Amino acid sequence: MSHPSQPSTSPHFRFSRFAKFIAAATGRPGTFILAVVVILVWAVTGPLFHYSDTWQLVINTSTTIVTFLMVFLIQNTQNRDSQAIHVKLDELIRAKKGARNSMIDLDDLTDEELAKIHAYYQELAKKSRGELRELQEDPATVVAAVKK
After folding, report:
1. What is the pLDDT of residues 50-79, one digit of tens each?
2. What value does the CA radius of gyration of the chain take, rounded to a whole number of Å?
3. CA-closest candidate to residue 76, choices 11, 25, 18
């Protein structure tokens, strides 16, 4: 299903589909095994080529090119995944009664503002852990929780 503002013929859409396909394909065990086989074939051919500079250059150049291209493909898929997760979380915040809708727009805060909010929630988590420890030390609470 294509997005209305992004027709399936646009270069951006085709690149995103290609990047998603390549990222999925390269994450499979078979692709890893293929890469290991390529390295082994290269290593075994070392004596045949007398471990020449050209023999070494082939693997160095090949791996550099693959790594360079994969960085962009992986970044594209990570950006898409991150954006999708943010939209899903934003919808959960929006839909949950009592949730703070102001949390939807955290991406646009400065690092300092985000750090302050993070510290606030870390403090809440610390207090919650303390409360949990107190509950665990109370035998009546533990027995009631086990019976549920």
Report:
1. 999 999 999 999 999 999 999 998 898 898
2. 26
3. 18
Q: How far apart are CA 133 and CA 142, in angstroms?
A: 11
| CA angle in degrees (0–180, nearest 5) for 128-143-131 | 10
User: What distance separates the 2 farthest-apart alpha carbons in the chain?
Assistant: 76
CB atoms inside a 10 Å sphere around CB 106:
15
**d(C-alpha 6, C-alpha 8), whole Å:** 6
Q: Is 61 helix (H, G, I), strand (E, B) or coil?
A: helix
pLDDT of 133: 75
> Are 15 and 72 spatial neighbours (Cβ–Cβ below 8 Å)?
no
Strands of 10-108, DSSP E: none
Residues 7-43 have pLDDT tens digits of 678 888 888 888 889 888 998 999 999 999 999 999 9
Angle (CA) 8 11 15, round 5°: 90
